[in-house]
Every structure is written in structure tokens, then in C-alpha cells.
Amino acid sequence: MGGGEGGEGARALDQTPTWAVVAVCAVIVAVSILLEGILHHLGQWFSKRKKKALFDALEKVKSELMTLGFISLLLTVTARYISRICIPAGAADTMLPCKLSRSSEHGEGHGRRHLSEEPAYFSCPKGMVSLVSTDGLHQLHIFVFFLAVFHVTFSAITMSLGRAKTRIWKEWEKDTSSITYEFSADPSKFRLTHQTSFVRQHASCWSKSTIMLYVVSFFRQFFRSVRRTDYLTLRHGFIAAHLSPGTRFNFQKYIKRSLQDDFKTVVGISPPLWASALAVMLFNVHGWHNLFWFSTIPLIVILAVGTKLQAIIARMAVEITEKHTVIQGMPVVKLSDEHFWFGKPHMVLHLIHFALFQNAFEITYFFWIWYEFGLRSCFHDNFEFIIARICLGGVVQFVCSYITLPLHALVSQVSIQYRHCSPMFSNYPTSVCTDTYFNNQTVKAIYL
């Protein structure tokens, strides 16, 4: 029997004990207050530790969660009215994610839970069906919840892996205080460019060919993407361009703060990213296998970005050999926006942002399908493709978080018109910041 008409399995709220309603509401309220408290204390901890960028990132995550909550609320309030919108049956049979099953037209869909269909007093005219059933809207409701949970989870993973990578550079930063480093960076010391470690590693015979340079750069991103000589050379070039000679500057701490600034950008969800997510759902049509092909897009983007960043390092080494036969002290790399695509350093971070979001969305989509319809549902008719998708998703998340994003935080320092003086440096005295450009300005430094 239908809900509210005596059916013991589906009672309406007016036939449900008040103690049961209160018990459920109490649990939901308690969980919500606990989550809000955790986020609040996490924000306070970021503020006390002067982690302005992470605090802003947390605020952005909370804003995105509020947006998803509002979407969920709209789905709940408008579900009855949306389900009463009728469309021709022919239109309803097009672009289906699963093969058409006539049983689904009578409320016997593939979901793991089925809500009661529209009340008996409402039905679409003959030859018409509901735009989206009440059951379908409930499943969308669950999907929004999955988006919220996975958005927080993937954001935490991204930041954790990125910070783990920058910790490795802390030892290299300590080495800059050693006598060995002082000897290698001695301004009175002259040597041939090809004798320096940085040039030897990047400016070999293969670097004279643009194709070979990018081929080698492609593979180099997987094996020690940032070497000690790369870090020290970029550090030396940055300090030479922006600080006074002899300044004691903790470049690793500065890169860590720059990574936090990048993280603040990549946790947001812009309208174009929402459009890309909707495109994934739109073209998930039975027989097209588009979910697999969509999952390759983040991989291609991340590999292209990683290759470009490695090629920038190699190009700087080549420029040193082309302009100098003999150098004094350590090699000084030339800072220029021209190293980046179209001379726009910001473009690289936007591509990383797109790849991270698209990858996280597709993995979320997979787990939602698994939860709602089962692992071997019609959505996963080609299970080999599904396994490949998940493996690709894991690879992209790791490579992007642990390799590409930290590499970008380091290499982006060679741009002239990229980093801005952020309030995150307000706790460091004796520094000046007057412009959003580094060119001819004194950077807001982090002193040892």
C-alpha cells in the first residue's frame, strides 16, 4: 500500500512517532554542530599559526560546502514540482546512461533504494513521462552529498601530498648555510658553464632539439622532478633578482607559502568547472564509453603541464650556455614570463586546477554510482574500463599533488609578473611590499 495509507513499510511523517523524528533530527544536528566546530577550530589554528593562505582556502571550502548545501535544499524543496513536469516518452528515451528497460517506466529502476512514486492523484498524460522522477531526484540528492564529502577529502589529500614534497627541500635549504655551498656560490670563483651541475643535467646535446628537449622533460617529471641543483639554482636566481646581496632568506619556507597560495586557488569551483562537470554527466550515454575518455583528459593535462615546467628549467640552462661561456659564482637563471605558454604564468595554475577538479569529480561519480546502483550495474557494463578509470584517477591525484603542484610553486618563481605580496607575510618585519609585480620591487621576504 502507498505511504500514508496504512502501509507499515512506508509511513508518512504524520503517522511517525515523535520520538523517532526527534531522535533522527538530534543525530543530524549533533553531527552538523560537530563538523562546524571542527572547521571553526581548524580555522583558529590556521590563524594562530599565521597561515593566512590556508585559512582563506578553508573559508573557500566552507563556501563551496554552503553552495552544495543550497543545491541540496533546492532539490528537496522543488522535487515534487520537478517530478510533475511531463515530457514526451520519445524524448525521455534518448541519451540514456543505461540500456532502456521498460520496467523502469513503472517505477522499477536500477537504484538500490526506491521511493514511492508520485501520489495517485497525479500522473502524466498518455505518451508522456516525468522529466525526472522523485526517486531520481533523491538519487541526485545523494550525489550532492557525495560531492561535498569528496571535495573536502580530495582537498586534504592535495595539500598533504604537496606539503610532504616541500619538506624534502627543507634539508636543501639547510645546506645553503654550509661551507660547501658558500664555496660553490663564491662570487669570486670563475668556471665554465658546462662545468656546473645545473647545466650538465639540463643542457646536453639533446637540448639543442626542441622535440628532444620536450621528450626528455616528459620523462624527467617522473624521476626526481626537482633535483637539489634545480632547487639551489632557482633559489639563487630568485634571491639575485629580488633581494640584496648577502640576504639570509629561507626560500623553502617561501615556496611552502606559495604552495599554500596555489592551494587556495585550486580548491575553488568556478562556473567553467561546474560546466565541465555537467558535460561529463551529459555525455555519459550508454555505449559511448565517454567516462573512460573523459578520465584521460586530466591525465593529459597534468602530463602536459609537468612537461612544460620541466622544459622551462631546461630552457633556462640552455640560455645560460648560450649567453655565457664563463660564469662567476653560481649560475643565475633569467626570470621571464616568456617561458610560459603565451607568456601567462597563471594559465599553468588554471590548468592544474581544472585537472584536479575534473579528476576528483569523476572519481566521486564512480563511487556514487557504486553506492546507488552497485559495482556491476549497467553504468559499468565494461568493467575493464572502470578499473582503468580508477587507476588513472589515482595516478592523476598523486602526480598532480605530489609532483606537479609543488613543481609549479617552485618554477613559477622565475616569472616576473606572477607572485603578489600577500598578507600571509605580515608577521615578517623589515620587509617592504608596494606592488603586485616583482620586477624592480623588494619582495616581502622570509628571513632566517
Features of the shown structure:
448 residues; mainly alpha; two-stranded antiparallel ribbon; two-stranded antiparallel sheet; 60% helix; disordered N terminus; calmodulin binding; calmodulin-binding
Your description of this structure?
Pfam families: Mlo. The chain contains 13 helices and four strands. It is an all-alpha fold and 448 residues long. It has a domain at 164-425. The strands form two sheets. The chain has a two-stranded antiparallel ribbon. Strands 3-4 form a two-stranded antiparallel ribbon. Helix 4 packs parallel to helix 13.
How far the N terminus sits from the C terminus, by CA atoms, comes to 75 Å
Low-confidence stretches: 1-7, 112-121, 418-445
Query: How would you describe the shape?
Result: elongated
Largest sheet, in brief, is: 2 strands, antiparallel
Radius of gyration (CA) equals 28 Å
Helix content: 55-70%
Oligomer: single chain
Mean residue pLDDT: 77
Broad structural category: mainly alpha
Total helices: the number is: 13
Strand order, sheet with most strands: 1-2
Strand element count: 4
Please provide the ordered H/E string of secondary-structure elements.
Answer: HHEHEHHEHHHHHHEHH
Q: What amount of the residues lies in strands? A: under 5%
